[in-house]
Amino acid sequence: MILPIFLYGQPVLRKETENVPQDYPELKKLVDNMYDTMYNADGVGLAAPQVGLSLRLFVIDADVVGDDCPECKGFKRTMINPDIYWRSEELVSIEEGCLSFPGLHEKISRAASIKVRYYDADFVAHDEEIHGFAARVVQHEYEHLEGHVFIDNVSGIRKQLSKGKLNDIIKGTARCSYRTKAVGK
After folding, report:
1. How many beta carbons lie within 10 A of that of residue 121, not counting itself?
2. pLDDT value at residue 129
3. What confidence category does residue 185 fall into, taking pLDDT thresholds of 50, 70 and 90?
4. Domain enclosing residue 99, as ranges
């Protein structure tokens, strides 16, 4: 089932999330719905707050960029209760966007490599070192679980230059090809 994606301005996007218990009702159905929603919106990642749930959970399928970023080939993960416990000192700055910010793209600096512990949808524990664009996607989605959004990583002047687009997103008038939930709607 395709869920609405909550847009910038929705309070759930600024709320720190809670751990997902192992007995969370219909967890696999939620994960499937999140993948369906992400694919429908042509995204490579989607965090639970983006579908209105304050849970430490996100899904990623970065395979679509695998030709340009070999580390993303076959990189499909469900990460439950993740913990990024190491970030490389090397930073990489490239443009990224977010499904909760339709039409807005900004250059963001992120660690080139990370180490993360998480559970998959079967609650099997994993500990992975991830590099390149795949690491960027994980960091982006992880921020959603901390109550942060990608626009928090840009300078005040860049935010000011994007003010019109941000206001359109908050008002729900930004153009978007997927189902959304704006503030007050």
Report:
1. 16
2. 98
3. low
4. 5-181
What's the pLDDT score for residue 156? Answer: 84
Give the pTM. 0.96
Q: Per-residue pLDDT tens for 88-140? A: 999 999 999 999 999 999 999 999 999 999 999 999 999 999 999 999 999 99
| Separation of CA 24 from chain center | 21
Given the residues 26, 141, 143, 146, the one annotated as active site: 141
Distances (CA, A) of 146 to 17, 97, 102, 104, 159: 6, 18, 21, 21, 20
Whether 141 is catalytic: yes
Q: What is the CATH number of the domain that holds 106?
A: 3.90.45.10
Domain count, the chain: 1
- Between CA 129 and CA 61 the distance in angstroms is 17
Cα(141)–Cα(47) distance, integer angstroms: 6
> How big is the CA angle at 71 (ends 128 and 95), to the nearest 5 degrees?
105
Please answer whether residues 56 and 82 qualify as being in contact, where contact means their C-beta atoms are separated by less than 8 angstroms. Answer: yes
